[in-house]
Amino acid sequence: MKRHEIIKSFPALDLRRLLGRRPAADPLLGRERVRFYSSGRAALYHIVKSLDGGTRDTFLLPAYHCGVEVEAVLRAGKNVDFYRIKRNLGVDLEHLRSRIDSRTRGIVVAHYFGFPQEMAPLAELCRQRGIMLIEDCAHALYSQDAAGAWLGTGGDFALFSMRKTSFLPNGGAVLVNGSELPLPAQGKSYADFSLYKSTIKAVLEHEMSRQGGVARLCRLILDSYGRRGEQSVDSGPAAEIDDRRWYYDVPMYHYENDIARISLLLAGLDDIRSIIDRRRENYRRLAELLAARFRTQFVFPELPAGVCPLCFPLFVPQRDQVVAEMAARGVEPFVFGRLLHPLIADDQFPEAHYLADSIVGLPLHQQLGRQEMERVAAVFAEAATGDLPQ
């Protein structure tokens, strides 16, 4: 499989953004009470640190997670407990309510794959119990709820991971809603050479998808890079992560760190409306292409108004085998939560284990169009049904 044929889960860096007209102010990241950090996990770490009420404080997190958010709370010196997530990815409100006690300081609620949780009952519960409500919008930058409110504006704090929606070498953010709440401290400045290497590689990968001499040159450079056995710090969605410490400790996303200067330079250069529109168009196209054979496996049968989808999630038997076969054919899906944090025992939260073992997210980001969606759908169908070309 040639590199220029690979369809990735997240967008690549397009230097032409630097030459274009700067879009209108960002409706979320352009607000006054925003702090930038190296990643979404760093954003949560700093939120928890800003709420320092004692070492016995506990934060309730969803049982379905990718692990780094749990690490963020632990590394901030606090305790964690978990609440049940249903198979439809909704919050089990009654179970959450049962987990609250006198030590509970905050609740983290995740908007999985860009689709909103029902925030009103969560906000009311937190108000009644004097608990902080933290929205995990790592998947949900530029998504809105049914009333048109931006996700991230309904809780006390929100965290974002911008690189999943708009290419940045690294980058997370905290939005603080309410002037009476503390603004988290700034992260530590740092330099990481691997971050600059990954940025250059991302530029080359995007350029080689075009036509002409520049594309051929970029392809030649990357082919040479690959022959030397170089690898990005991100091993890709099909890779097995046997050592969870590796995944938790990627330097460019480290918990204490500030956003890199190069990421801050590139932030805010995207046309947000075009991101939302293209992702929604691609979601609808994939739904059309897959409905006849796979509609019962759609995690979200409908695309609500206002949602900016991160990917197209499906329930897939033998998910990891399907992901590996897709990656071998040049389509790299997004897998969230493959390994739950070690604090979740194998016999705990069967729903979370089912979700962790079953969901695959098909790429649909804004740099992909109709032709790519047809290829993604075809490759998925071949891998999911075993109908693979010889």
TrEMBL record:
<dbReference type="InterPro" id="IPR000653">
    <property type="entry name" value="DegT/StrS_aminotransferase"/>
</dbReference>
<comment type="similarity">
    <text>Belongs to the DegT/DnrJ/EryC1 family.</text>
</comment>
<keyword id="KW-0663">Pyridoxal phosphate</keyword>
<protein>
    <recommendedName>
        <fullName>DegT/DnrJ/EryC1/StrS aminotransferase</fullName>
    </recommendedName>
</protein>
<dbReference type="InterPro" id="IPR015421">
    <property type="entry name" value="PyrdxlP-dep_Trfase_major"/>
</dbReference>
<dbReference type="InterPro" id="IPR015422">
    <property type="entry name" value="PyrdxlP-dep_Trfase_small"/>
</dbReference>
<dbReference type="Pfam" id="PF01041">
    <property type="entry name" value="DegT_DnrJ_EryC1"/>
</dbReference>
<dbReference type="InterPro" id="IPR015424">
    <property type="entry name" value="PyrdxlP-dep_Trfase"/>
</dbReference>
